[in-house]
Amino acid sequence: MIISHKNHYIFIHCRKTAGSSISLMLSETLGPWDVQLSAVSETLQAGGTIPVRMWAEAIGRSGSSLLFHLMRGKGKKKATDALAAGVKRAYQQRLGRKPQHADAEKIKLAFPREWDSYSKFCVVRNPFSLAVSDYIWRTRNLSMRPSFPEYIKALAAGDDLGGVVPVGFYNNWRQYTIDNRIVVDHVIKFENLSHDLGKVLSTLGVPFSGQLPRVKDVKSKNRENPPLTSYRDYYTREAVEIVSNLYRYEIDAFGYTFA
């Protein structure tokens, strides 16, 4: 999530919708007192900067760990990871366990003035594609990964398969709705990302080249089961039915289909 006081918007970072890439791009336009909770490590590792406010709040939460990595020269990644962890801890009490993916209701309660006066936008994605993307990401380093139908059946049953399946945190519906009502001003479709994002940012006066950086390429250790060419190739008839039920609100709201 990003709250830009400079440009008067709230970007709600929905999972598996290029949110980290968007956050990295937006970081170049933020002011010193803006709130950046998404792609903190990625921004710094790419040579960018995060708002001064984030440094101050992170050091307040993990100063000793952060300074240790910086002083001992333990590497840029460890230092930026420590900074990102400090930023996350600084907002968990107000925004929940994953503040970078906070629900709309929590954002509204934590930042009521900004919520009422700033433009709010997010990106949504076909749930049939999103579920596969999440599956590939979460099983990328498993030597014995479950099949996608097994993964989806476990998700529906509330079985996390030892921490692999994101039970209770698999869709994005509550991030941009309150009481099942969409409460953001702009909903961008992942399937038309560059065009729709450009239109929204233009209304906000935020420059956009039309290109987004890639920050989360999947590098799997599982060489025996490389990703298939289309999300449809992962599905059985039962898996289609399960995903249709799990993501029924998004499917109904945006007219997504399996075809």
TrEMBL record:
<dbReference type="GO" id="GO:0008146">
    <property type="term" value="F:sulfotransferase activity"/>
</dbReference>
<dbReference type="GO" id="GO:0016020">
    <property type="term" value="C:membrane"/>
</dbReference>
<protein>
    <recommendedName>
        <fullName>Sulfotransferase family protein</fullName>
    </recommendedName>
</protein>
<dbReference type="InterPro" id="IPR027417">
    <property type="entry name" value="P-loop_NTPase"/>
</dbReference>
<dbReference type="Pfam" id="PF03567">
    <property type="entry name" value="Sulfotransfer_2"/>
</dbReference>
<dbReference type="InterPro" id="IPR005331">
    <property type="entry name" value="Sulfotransferase"/>
</dbReference>
